[in-house]
Amino acid sequence: MFLGFIFEKLKDHLVELKKEFRLYKYSKKNNCNLGKNLNFLGSLENISIGEHTTVNNNANFRFTNAKINIGKNCLIARNVSILTKAYNIDNQKNITIEDMYAKDVNIGNNVLLGSNVVIMPGISIGNHSVVGAGSVVTKNIGDFEVWAGVPAKFIRNRNVSER
User: What is the pTM of this model?
Assistant: First the structure.
C-alpha cells in the first residue's frame, strides 16, 4: 500500500515536470519569460507569445479549440486568465459542454495586464494598452488605451510623448 502511494506521487511529479520542461523549452525557443504554476490548457501550437514578454506565476490560459496570440514586450501579472471558450447560455434550457463556443484572443505588443485580469473569448487588445488589476475584459481595447473594472470600461488614453 505504501509503495503504491509513493509510485502514484512520483508519477504525478513526473507529469508536472514534463509539463514544466515543455514550457521551459517553449520559453527558450520564443525568448519569453514564463513563471511557475502555469495552467496552459491546450496544444502549444495554439499559443504564440512574443519575444521579451513575461507571463508571471499562476496564469491560467485555456486554448484548446482556439488560439491565443500575445505580442512582444508584454507584461502579464500574476493570476491572469485568458479564455478562448465560453458557454452559449441562450441556446437551450440546459447549459452543457456541447453548447460552448471558441474564439481566438489577440493581444498586441507592449501590453500590461494587471493581476487577476480575465480576458474573455474573442477579445483583441491593441498595442501599448493597459488593463487594470482585477478587470474582466468583455470588449475589444484599442491602441494606447487604459481600461479597468468589472466589466472593464475605458478609463482614458495613455499620455505618452512618443507614439
Answer: 0.88
